[in-house]
Amino acid sequence: MRVLHLSDIHCGHPFVGAHVDGALALARAGGWNAIVVSGDFSQRAREREFRQARELLDALRTFAPVLTVPGNHDTAWWHAPFGVGDASRLHTGYRAWINEDIEPVLRVPGLSIVGLNSSWGMLSAALTWYPRDWRVKGGLTDAQLDRAAAQLAESPADDLRLLVVHHNVVRGNLSRRWGMKRPQLMLDRIAALNVDVVCTGHDHEERVEVVERRTGRFVISAANTLSRRMRGRRASALNIIEATATDVTVSAWTFLDGAFIAGPARATMPRSHAGT
């Protein structure tokens, strides 16, 4: 079982064609059961940016089924600041060009992937008391997490299970920032879902590690950006998820000399449902 995880393409002025070409070359190499893109297709939620991102998605879909979720840059927060206005317009561009469904579920043999929208703009699900967080911070509601639990419960017992959200659920090593409102509660609730891997983006720092909570554990697959907006002068990176009948491994692949190559960052844990 192999899943390719990309994030934060940022079509528009931060777009880097060489990085996208490198990702496409890796996708073209084949052997993928699915491809995940965890948000921020655009830079300013403009139609021309979404149109450019759609071209990439159309290419990726020729190699494997693709699941996407929106990012904060794909969210037109100005339509409903603090809930004033028309919140139904927050994801109009994303729905028109990327996917009508902002919380999709993808099931292929041996694999169940649930996507949740963590990008709420300036609605209460993501708002904190800190102005620095406004428009940037993400969140998940209890109803969303309950729905994800029900969807995952419908999966065959031996499926590899992935959750996909845009915002980082662990604190950034470089940014020192949490991506989610209620971060500790989010970690506990997500761990209780009994997923194998949680795919995120947003923080522009690749992270692959096992997260252990009192409610469970999972491997975090935080993909770096494919744009020029790398944090700390790091190279662009994407992640690869590989699973056997008993274990799941996530590894970060770094862009070097025109191609993505396997880097040292790697995390492995026993699958949540191994042997069931």
Automatic annotation (TrEMBL):
Pfam families: Metallophos. Gene3D superfamilies: 3.60.21.10. One of its GO terms (molecular function) is metal ion binding. This is Putative metallophosphoesterase. InterPro entries: Calcineurin-like_PHP, CNP_phosphodiesterase-III, Metallo-depent_PP-like. Belongs to the cyclic nucleotide phosphodiesterase class-III family. Residues 1-205 form the Calcineurin-like phosphoesterase domain. Keywords: Hydrolase, Iron, Metal-binding.
